[in-house]
């Protein structure tokens, strides 16, 4: 069979990378259509996945919408050329490629706020797969799995550190370090949302640097922490999970990396305007399990971060919580491969069930 995967962001590359390799090893033809956004292209090349870049996009909403027509032209051309039997993706690009080519589409969706994407993509999906924590009912063909999209690549069955990351970073064996991640808020689902202000970023980094070495990953165009003592992220982006696994703490105003830290047993503090009464289901559950802190107040961010960094038992406690949490969660890569081999049919797969909105 011929399978087509869409990777519009770096997280999508991680989501599908092991499934692509496994299907290739079985003798199937596989193509990845990727967008040159962030480090997506670098990751596709690093993992040597068979891919074509259909277009580029910056970190602003204007860049996305300006390039949208060119993206679709290139996507439709490549779909007609490749002639897939089944398409996997996370939204409109994959759904519309399937509609134009009359190819079944399986969508893996994990973000409730992307309502526009849901509206324009779900009518064309043969199946929609979401985490068990997903807080919306999207359609009759909406199924759930126990886990998150990140369990496709951070489940204990598939994740192993690839390098001695401390040596890679130039750190001493017992040197404590913290990762700080700032979002650009340039995606369509980020419209109207915000994270740390430049002034608070500098204040946060200054406090963290009193307790540990600080690495800053900043997508924003408003960075103002040049006078603060930090270490640059000068390693390949494919190593970021090895970095997170060894870190004492992640503080972020973004989303995906927070879940990744939790699944690696690293405490994470998340603070942005998504946090609150209508927060996304995966972050609510991770907080209930004691793996992350969803914090609205900046003062609370500072207090929580300092408390975690000064408690010598934090890391061991979080690893134990992570192990307990993942005990009944699926390896999503296995699920994706099973769906692929079933030509997009999900009913026979035991690890999938009809979606029900969590109480």
From TrEMBL:
Top-level division of the source organism's lineage: Archaea
Matching SUPFAM superfamilies: UDP-Glycosyltransferase/glycogen phosphorylase (SSF53756)
InterPro entries: DUF354
Coiled coil: none
Annotated protein name in UniProt: DUF354 domain-containing protein
Organism, as annotated: Haloferax marinum
């Amino acid at each position: 069979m011929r399978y087509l995967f869409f990777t519009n962001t770096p997280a999508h590359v991680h989501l599908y990378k092991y499934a692509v390799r496994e299907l290739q090893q079985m003798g199937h033809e596989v193509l990845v259509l990727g967008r040159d956004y962030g480090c997506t292209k670098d990751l596709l090349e690093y993992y040597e996945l068979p891919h074509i870049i259909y277009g580029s996009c910056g970190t602003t909403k204007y860049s996305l919408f300006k390039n949208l027509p060119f993206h679709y032209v290139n996507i439709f051309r490549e779909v007609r050329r490749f002639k897939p039997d089944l398409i996997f993706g996370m939204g409109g690009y994959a759904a519309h490629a399937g509609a134009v080519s009359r190819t079944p589409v399986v969508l893996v969706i994990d973000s409730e706020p992307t309502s526009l994407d849901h509206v324009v993509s779900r009518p064309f999906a043969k199946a929609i797969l979401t985490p068990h924590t997903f807080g919306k009912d999207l359609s009759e063909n909406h199924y759930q799995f126990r886990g998150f999209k990140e369990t496709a690549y951070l489940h204990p069955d598939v994740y192993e550190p690839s390098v001695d990351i401390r040596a890679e970073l130039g750190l001493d064996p017992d040197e404590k370090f913290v990762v700080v991640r700032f979002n650009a808020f340039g995606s369509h689902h980020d419209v109207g949302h915000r994270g740390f202000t430049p002034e608070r970023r500098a204040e946060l980094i200054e406090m963290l640097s009193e307790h540990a070495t600080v690495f800053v990953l900043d997508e924003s165009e408003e960075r103002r922490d040049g006078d603060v003592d930090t270490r640059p992220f000068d390693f390949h982006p494919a190593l970021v999970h090895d970095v997170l696994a060894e870190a004492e703490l992640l503080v972020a105003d973004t989303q995906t990396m927070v879940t990744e830290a939790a699944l690696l047993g690293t405490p994470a503090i998340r603070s942005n305007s998504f946090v609150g009464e209508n927060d996304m289901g995966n972050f609510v559950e991770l907080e209930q399990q004691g793996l992350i802190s969803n914090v609205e107040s900046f003062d609370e961010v500072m207090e929580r971060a300092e408390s975690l960094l000064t408690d010598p038992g934090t890391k061991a406690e979080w690893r134990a919580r992570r192990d307990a949490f993942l005990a009944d969660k699926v390896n999503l890569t296995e699920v994706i491969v099973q769906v692929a081999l079933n030509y997009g049919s999900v009913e026979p797969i035991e690890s999938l069930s009809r979606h029900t909105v969590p109480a």
